[in-house]
Amino acid sequence: MSPPPAANPDRLLPADPGTRSIARELLARVEDLPIISPHGHVDAAMLELDTPFPDPATLLVSPDHYVTRLIHASGVPLERLRMGGATAVEPRDTWREFAKAWPLFDGTASGYWMRDSFQHVFGLSKEVNEENADALFDELDAKLQSPAFRPRQLFKNFNIEVLATTDDPLDDLAPHAAIAKDPTFTGRVLPTFRPDAYIKFAAAGWAGRVEKLIAVAGDGMAGYAGYIRALENRRRYFVEHGAVSADHGVRTAQTLRLDAVTAATLFDKACRGEATAADADVFEAHMTYQMARMSVEDGLVMTIHPGVFRNHHTESFNRFGADTGHDIPFAVSYTEALRPMLEDFGTAQGFHFIPFTIDETVFSREIAPLAGFYPSVYIGAPWWFLDAPDAMLRFRSAVTETAGFSRSSGFIDDTRAFCSIPARHNTSRRIEASFLARLVAESRVSEARAHEIIVDIVDAAPRRAFKL
Amino acid sequence: MSPPPAANPDRLLPADPGTRSIARELLARVEDLPIISPHGHVDAAMLELDTPFPDPATLLVSPDHYVTRLIHASGVPLERLRMGGATAVEPRDTWREFAKAWPLFDGTASGYWMRDSFQHVFGLSKEVNEENADALFDELDAKLQSPAFRPRQLFKNFNIEVLATTDDPLDDLAPHAAIAKDPTFTGRVLPTFRPDAYIKFAAAGWAGRVEKLIAVAGDGMAGYAGYIRALENRRRYFVEHGAVSADHGVRTAQTLRLDAVTAATLFDKACRGEATAADADVFEAHMTYQMARMSVEDGLVMTIHPGVFRNHHTESFNRFGADTGHDIPFAVSYTEALRPMLEDFGTAQGFHFIPFTIDETVFSREIAPLAGFYPSVYIGAPWWFLDAPDAMLRFRSAVTETAGFSRSSGFIDDTRAFCSIPARHNTSRRIEASFLARLVAESRVSEARAHEIIVDIVDAAPRRAFKL
Amino acid sequence: MSPPPAANPDRLLPADPGTRSIARELLARVEDLPIISPHGHVDAAMLELDTPFPDPATLLVSPDHYVTRLIHASGVPLERLRMGGATAVEPRDTWREFAKAWPLFDGTASGYWMRDSFQHVFGLSKEVNEENADALFDELDAKLQSPAFRPRQLFKNFNIEVLATTDDPLDDLAPHAAIAKDPTFTGRVLPTFRPDAYIKFAAAGWAGRVEKLIAVAGDGMAGYAGYIRALENRRRYFVEHGAVSADHGVRTAQTLRLDAVTAATLFDKACRGEATAADADVFEAHMTYQMARMSVEDGLVMTIHPGVFRNHHTESFNRFGADTGHDIPFAVSYTEALRPMLEDFGTAQGFHFIPFTIDETVFSREIAPLAGFYPSVYIGAPWWFLDAPDAMLRFRSAVTETAGFSRSSGFIDDTRAFCSIPARHNTSRRIEASFLARLVAESRVSEARAHEIIVDIVDAAPRRAFKL
Questions:
Q1: A430: closest chain B residue by CA
Q2: Is the pLDDT reported for residue A56 higher than 80?
Q3: Minimal Cα–Cα distance from B66 to chain C, Å?
Q4: Residues B113 and B166 placed together within one structural domain of the fold
C-alpha cells in the first residue's frame, strides 16, 4: 500500500529508483532550511496584529484566484465563491462548492499545494470530498480559531526567516515598522515598492493618485519633475523601512529612454486625460527605464512581471474586481525590449534586475543568454502558471545548460495564500533535488557538487539576488 | 528476445519498470472502451454503401498526406504516389515506393500508426520492406477484397460508437440520414458543419458558392443578410441530421465584432471581386465571431483549427491540389485574438468552444489559462503534427498543472485514413496511461484517482466537450 | 564510489538501467567513428603550419565566448579575460579567474565539454579549482608545448576525417590548398563561403569591401551586376578549393525575389551611404534568395543561421569587438519567410538548404514540417545555446515524430575551440544513443533499426546533407 500522496516522503521525486535515492539525499540537505520569501502578497498588518484567520472558505478559497478560476470554469458563478466581496452565499456554501470541485484539481499545482497544506499544516483527518465537506469545514474552522493557528505562530512553525510584502508607494509601512521593533517577532517582514498604479495612465484613478503622490513627496515640485522626485523619495522611504526590491507589473518588457521634455509632455497629456493607449505604452517603457536608473542609485533590486493580459473578461472584472482569475498570459520578448535599459545599466555596479515570465519560450532563447552575460541580470524563477513541478523542471532544463545554477533568483512564492507558503517552498526544493539528481545520475554533475549546488539554490541564491 | 514493436503489449509505456506497471493497469481500464471520434474526415457515403476498399496503395498511401509528404521529401515525385488523381504509374508502383521509403517512417507518428494497423488490423505476416513489397501488396489486396475488410465490418471490429464526418454546408447529408435509419448499423455517424469555403474570400469559387448558398437557404433574402440567414438555416439542417459541432479552419484565431453595415460592405466588395487580403482577414475574424454567436443560439460545439499556411508550394498545389503535404504551421496567439468573442460569449450558457493549435507554445501560455477560467473553453487535443506520443506527453505536461484533466476535449483523430483509427485512439490511450502513471509514481495523483481520471479522459471527456 | 563524471563510460546516458543498457550498445556502434565536422570556425592556417598552441588561457579561455560570458556575468571585467586583445593581465591571471569561476559551469554545455577535454584530451591529474589553478596552468602549458599537442597530431588523435572552416569570399584559401597537396596530411580541410560582410549594408566597411570584391572578381562589370558576378565567381573559386557549402549569418530567415533593377537601386543607395535599416533588411532578404539561386547552380549546400541580435551591449562591443559573449537570440519564423525561396527552389534538383535556429519553438512548428515535404530542406542540428544535452533531446523529440531521422543535417560543432571538438561530437553521439534507446525501450523503434539509425545519424547524415 502506497501512503496517500501528500504523506509520501518521496513525493515529487523521480520514479527511477537510482535517481530517486540521489534526490532523497539532496532533499535532506535543504528540506529544513528556513524559508526565504523575497516576493509575495501577504498582508503585513495580519502579522503585526496577529489577527485570527477567518473561516476556511474565506481563508482558503475566495481570495485565491488560482483556486476559484478552475471552479468557475466548471460552471460555478463567481458569486457563489464569494468573490469580490459577494456575500449572497454563506462561507460554508462556498466551501461545499470547493469540496465538490476538488477532483478538478488533481494534477494541478494548486491542488498539490492544498493537499500538502491539508496534510502538513492542518493535519486534516480525511481527503476532501462532497460528502465530508461540512465535517472538514468544521474541523478546519475549529483549528483556525485556536491559538496554534494564529498568523504569528504559523509564521514560526513555517520557519520563515524573511517575508517580503508588496506595497503601495504611499503606504506608511507602519505594520512593517511595528514588526521590526517588536522583540517577540524574530522574522524579517520587508516591504516591496510597487508603483504600477502610478505609472499606467489607464489605471483607474491614476491622475488623482499621482496628484497625491506629488503633493506628499514631491518636495514642492510640480508636474513630471515632482512626480519623478516623489517616486525617488518614496523609494528611499521604503529602503529606510527595510525594502530590498521594487516590483513592476509591466505590460511588456519594453524599455525606452525618453528625454525629460518628451516624458513630461506625455505626463501632462495623461494628466489632462488625453493620453492614448500608445502614449501609455511609451510612458510605461520610459518609466521602466527610469526605475532601473533609480535602482542603480538607491540599490533596490528591480523585478519585472510582464506579459499578462489583466482582466480579460470585462463583465467579471466589473462585477468582481481585479485578481478574479482571468489574467491571461501572452507572448513576450526581452532581447530587443530590454536593450535600452541594459545598454546603460546592464553592467552597472550593484544593479540587480530580475525578469520573470509566463512565456516559457524565452527561458532558453532570451533570458538565459542575457543572464549569462550581464552581471545585473538574474533569471526569475518560474512564475504563476509555471510555478508547478513539471514547469519548474522545464525551466531548469531550459536555462541551466546556458547559464548554470548561479544566475537564478531563487524561489519566489508570489502568493497571498499564507498557509500555502510551506507547501510551495517544499515543492520547489523537491523539484530542485529531482533535477539535480538526474544530472548526477547522468554524470553531468558530481554528487558532491550537487550537494553544494542545492544549498546554494535554496538558501544562497535568494539572499544573493535580493541582497538579503 | 523482445517482441516486434507493434506486438509488444507494453508499447509506448514508460521504460521505468515501476511506472510501467502502473501504466499497464491504467491502460487496462480503457484499452477496450468504444471509440468516440467527434472530429475527422472519413466519407459517410463509404459507410452508407459499404463500398469495398481499393488496392493497398490507393487506400493507404495516395490519399494520406501524412505519408506521402515524407516520401516526397526523400525525392520521389508526387505523381509516382498517384497524388491528385495522377494515374501515370500503377498502384503497385506507388506501393513499391512506399515500401522502399518505409525506413524513413521510423520514429514518426505515421510510421507508428501504420505498423500498428499492419499488425492489428491487417495481421500482416512480415515487416514491410523493398524485397517483400509485392508479396505484401498482394496479401493486403486479397484481404481488402474479402468481406471481413468491408467498411461496415471494420467499423464494428474497431468498436466505434460515434464517428463524426466533416461536411460542406450545402451537403444534403443523405448518407448520414440513410445510416441513421438503417437498423443494421448501430454506430452513430454524425455530420460536422464546415463553412470555410463560404467564408474565405480568397477560396477558389467563393462568390459562386455563396450565391448558391443564399439561393438555396437564404429565405429569399439577398446579400449579407441572406448569407447570414442561409448559414443559420444550414446549421439548423445539420443539427436536425445529428451534427453536434461546427468546425472552422480559420487562418488565425482572430475574432472581431463588426456592425452589420460594415460587414455587409466587406461582403459586397468581395462579391464584386474587389476585396483585399486584409478585407478577407477582417471578414473572417468577424465570421468567427458570428459563428460563435450562432453556436450559442443553436448549440453546435464550435471548434477552430488556426495557424496553418495552406498550400505552401504553389507548383505542387497547381498540379496536385490541396492536402498534398505542404501545409506548414506558423506561430499563433489566442489571448487577444479570442477576446472579442469571449467577452460576449465566454460565459454563455451551453456554449462550447474548442481551440486547437499546432503551435505548442500556446498550451501553457494561453490555452490552459483560458480554459482554466472560461466555462466555454475546452482545450483541443494535440492536433496534426502534434498528434504523436512525445508531443502528447508535452501537451499534458503543459496544460495539466494549470487546468487539470477536466478541461480537455478528449482525443480527436482528425483523420481520413479510416484503417488508422484504432491505432490512433490506442496510441492516445497508452500516452494518457503513461502520463498518469508518472503522476502516480511521483505521488502527485493517487492511484485510485488516476483510474477514475483515465476513464474520464478517454470516455467522458469527448462526450462532455462535444455534447454526445 | 562513482567515477568522476568525465571518466564515467556511461556519462549522459539515461538513468533507467534498462534504457541505459540499450543506449550503451547503440553508443558502442558509433563512439569510434571518424569525426565529420562540416561547419565550424577553426583556422586552416593553424593546421597548415602546425603552429604550437599558446598558453592554456590564450587557448582555452580568452577566445571562447561561451566560456568568458559566464565569467563576465559573475562580475569579472572582460579585460581580465584578455578579451579583444587586452593584455593588461597575464594569461596566468586569466586562468586563475577561470579556475575561480569553474564551479559556475556545472550543468552547462561548456562545462561539460571542458571537463571532458581535460579528462580525455589533456589527461589532467586533478579537478580545476582555485587552489590548484597555478599547478594546472603549468601542467597544461607543458603539455601544450610538447609535440604530442601540436594541431596536426591532435587532428589525427581526434580521428577527424573532414573539417570545414568558415572563410571570407576574398580569402585566397592558400592554407586549404597547401593542406590538400600535402601527402602527410590525410584529413580533408574544406573552406566554407561566408559572404555576410559583403551583404549587410550596416557591416562596418561594407562599401570598401564590396568595391574590392567587384574589382577582384567582377569580370570588369560594375555596380550590382558586377557584385553578383563577383559573388558567383568567388563561389566557383571556393568550389574549386573543395568547398561544399556556403553559410549565411542572416538577421532573419526572410527571403525575397526582387527584380534586378530594384535590387540595383538599393545596392547603389547603399554604395552612396544612404541606405536605411529597412533597405538593408530588404536587400539581405533578396540576397538570401540570390544565394539559393546560386546554390542551385553551383551545388554549394546552403546553410543559414538567423535570429541572433549581435553585439547587444554596445560598450562591450566598442571596447572588445564582436564575439565577446553578448549575442542574444530572439524569436524567428520560417514558414512565410522562406516561402519566396522555396516556391522557386524548394524542389530543385540537388539543392540542399539547412536552416538552423536558436528559437527552439520552430522545430516542431515549422522546420520539421518544411523538411518533411521539401526534398531540399534538411533540419539543422541544435545550434549554439541549444547544442547541449537536454536541448538536443528536446530537439529530437520535437522533430522526429514529424520528419523521422532522415531529414536532419547531422551534428555540427560550429566551434573555434579546436580542442573541444571530440567532446562535442562525443556528447552528440551519447545523446543520439540516449534518445534512440528510449524509443527502443518504448517499443517505438526496433533495436535492430536503432542500430542502423544511429550509424546513419552520426556518419551518413552529414555526408548526405553536406554532399561529402
A1: B442
A2: yes
A3: 9
A4: no
Half-sphere exposure of B120 toward its Cβ, with a 13 Å CA cutoff? 22
Distance separating alpha carbons of residues A80 and A78, to the nearest angstrom: 5
Instruction: Give me the long-range contacts of B181-184 (CB less than 8 A, separation at least 24).
Output: B182/B48
Chains A, B: CB contacts within 8 A come to: 143
Helix C65-73 vs helix C91-101: crossing angle, to nearest 10: 70
**C49 touching A (Cβ < 8 Å):** no
Task: Give the number of other Cβ atoms within 10 Å of residue C213's Cβ.
Answer: 23
C184 in the same domain as C61: no
Nearest 5°: phi and psi at A357? -155, 150
- A410 grid coordinates: 531563487
3-state secondary structure (DSSP) of residue B235? helix
Query: Are residues A83 and A17 both part of a single domain?
Result: no
Encode pLDDT of A351-381 as tens digits. 999 999 999 999 999 999 999 999 999 999 9
Provide the domain limits for residue B108: 53-149
- Chain A positions touching B444 (Cβ under 8 A) are 5, 11-12, 107, 112, 389
pLDDT at B2: 64
* List of chain B residues whose C-beta atoms are within 8 Å of the C-beta of residue C19: 15
* CB-CB neighbors (< 8 A) of B365 in chain A: 329-331, 358-361, 385
Q: Is this complex scored with an ipTM above 0.90?
A: yes
Tell me the DSSP string of B165-221. --B-TT---HHHHHHHH-TT--SEEE-EE--HHHH-TTSTTHHHHHHHHHHHHSTT-
Residue A248, SS3 per DSSP: strand
Q: Which residues of A are less than 8 Å from B452 in CB distance? A: 103
The band of C327, judged by pLDDT with boundaries at 50, 70 and 90, is very high
Please state the φ and ψ torsions of residue A293, each to the nearest 5 degrees. Answer: -60, -45
Q: What percent of chain A has pLDDT over 70?
A: 100
What are the DSSP calls for C305-330, one per residue?
A: ---EE----HHHHHHH-SSSS--EE-
- Out of C114, C134, C149, pick the residue that ends a domain: C149
Nearest by CB to C309, which of A336, A406, A446? A336
Q: How far is CA A92 from CA A60, A85, A137, B33, in A?
A: 12, 15, 7, 39
Residue in A closest to B372 by C-alpha: A70
CB contact under 8 A, A5 and B407: no
* Same domain flag for C60 and C201: no
Half-sphere exposure of A377 (CA within 13 A, CB side): 28
Rounded to whole angstroms, how far apart are CA atoms A405 and C104?
A: 7
pLDDT for the residue B86: 87
The predicted-structure confidence for A292-305, as pLDDT tens digits, reads as follows: 999 999 999 999 99
For chain C, say whether B80 makes contact (Cβ under 8 Å): no
Residues 374-403 of C with CB under 8 A from A: 385-386, 388-391, 394
Contact C106 A445 (CB under 8 A): yes
Residue of A nearest to C1 (CA): A447
CA B16 from centre of chain: 32
CATH number of the domain where residue B59 is located: 1.10.2020.10
Cα–Cα distance measured from residue A291 to residue A351, given in angstroms and rounded to the nearest whole number: 11
Query: Sign of dihedral through CA atoms C294, C255, C191, C396?
Result: negative
Counting other chains too, the contacts that A260-266 makes at CB distance below 8 Å and 24 or more residues apart are A260/A224, A260/A225, A263/A224, A264/A223, A264/A224, A264/A225
**Residue A334 one-letter amino acid:** Y
* Co-location of C21 and C38 in the same domain: yes
Q: Cβ contact (<8 Å) for B5 and C441? A: no
Considering the domain architecture, whether residues B415 and B301 belong to the same structural domain is answered as yes
Burial class of A146 by CB neighbour count within 10 A (0 to 12, 13 to 18, 19+): exposed
Q: The domain that contains B404 carries what CATH number?
A: 3.20.20.140
* A75 contacts chain B (CB < 8 A): yes
Residue C51 is given by DSSP the state P
Question: What is the number of structural domains in chain B?
Answer: 2
